[in-house]
Amino acid sequence: MTADGQMTADLAIAGGGLVGLSLGVALARTGLEVVVMDGEDPARMREAAFDGRVCSISYGSKRVLDGIGVWDGMAAEAEPILEIRVTDKDAPLFLHYDHSEIGDQPLGWIVENNVTRIALLEAAAACSNLTHLAPVSVEAFKPEGDRIHARLVDGRQISARLAVAADGRRSRLRHAAGIPTTEWSYNQSGIVCTVHHERSHRGIAQERFLPAGPFAILPMTHSRASIVWTESTDHAAHLLALSDTVFLAELESRFGDYLGALEVTGPRFSYPLALTHSDRYTGERLALAGDAAHAIHPLAGQGFNLGVRDVAVLAELIIDRHRLGLDIGAPDLLAHYQRWRRFDTMSLIAVTDGLNRLFSNDIPPLRLARNIGLAAVNRIPSLKHLFMHHAMGTVGELPRLARGEPL
């Protein structure tokens, strides 16, 4: 950085969360000069206690994180998902995925967000050509000719060939770029908490569809499970206000006793469930990634995996262009990124939105139809295995990292 606060880089990334840092590390490891800007203090993020949030990381996403040198820092605290059981309330019919039916790799892993964050911070610190500016606030991106300039609130500027907005669902930079969104609320809230249980979960994840919405039990390390519990917004507020004893009783009525005695550990909190989808993923010398481009219902736990695939695709396109000595911010590259990512995202939006609307009710004819549907898929191996591969993130036009190949 020069004395007047100016910095030049190949890429400027606004947002140092899981997606922004992943992209920064992926590109810096191949030799590009990268600046990642974030509003959070990295020291505080490293010291933060577990806050109850986890990510479900598919097999394809694990390949990406492994390929950018981050997975080794997460592996010890990653709990493999060996089976998934999908049920509709207390119906006897169900859908069951077992990883052993299609290979020896887990279907995915559950990892605490702070474990992933620390692994990414360590990987970023090891990249000499990655500059992590934090805490800082990016005021605007301004394209000029073959560069784009990130202006910070403190007056500093970063000049880059391409900028990426990875600043979350309510992205200020997306809004400043004039990129509209399609949004709707589900009038639901997700209650998140962690429980310690008496018996082993054996790596089995449960997705239970209840009339108010899905109730997920996700296996974690150290005899714990992460709960993602969907309720109407009004009722979620009521549940959070209950005493610890009454809240546990409500949770147990939905969880059951198959893992023995339960204890809620750590905080419990909720967040409103809504869909936000950007009409475009690009602007002039600008790409959107992660929740800035698409934020979906947490059903099936695919939000972070979508962001990881954004990282893998964008990194591949940028690096291939850079190796040829071509412009990494050119319109055709950005158009290619949007085409590649849009089909995958729209498909997952359709699936998660449709399933949530189909199962979040107790209408008898619908309940019967969906139970028959679950049982039918469970009895058709070819169809079930296709769905399993989708859950693993190994279907479709995959970028090299998601195929387990180097950049």
Give the percentage of residues in beta strands: 25-35%
CATH architect. name = 3-Layer(bba) Sandwich
Number of domain modules: 1
Helix segment count? 11
- Numbering strands along the chain, what is their spatial order in the largest sheet? 7-6-15-16-17-14-18-21
Q: Outline, from the CA principal axes?
A: globular
Q: Which blocks of ≥5 consecutive residues have pLDDT under 50?
A: none
- Superfamily at the CATH H level? FAD/NAD(P)-binding domain
Quick check: average pLDDT?
93
CATH top-level class: Alpha Beta
Euclidean distance between termini CA atoms: 29 Å
The major pleated sheet works out as: 8 strands, mixed
Percent of residues in helices: 25-40%
**Count the strands?**
21
What is the CATH third-level topology name? FAD/NAD(P)-binding domain
For the CA atoms, what is the radius of gyration? 22 Å
Structural class: alpha/beta
Describe this entry's structure for a reader.
- α3 packs across α8.
- The chain has an eight-stranded mixed sheet with strand order 7-6-15-16-17-14-18-21.
- It is α/β, with parallel strands linked by helices and 407 residues long.
- Helices cover 35% and strands 31% of the residues.
- The protein has a single domain, classed as FAD/NAD(P)-binding domain (3-Layer(bba) Sandwich).
- The relative contact order is 0.18.
- It is globular, with a radius of gyration of 22 Å.
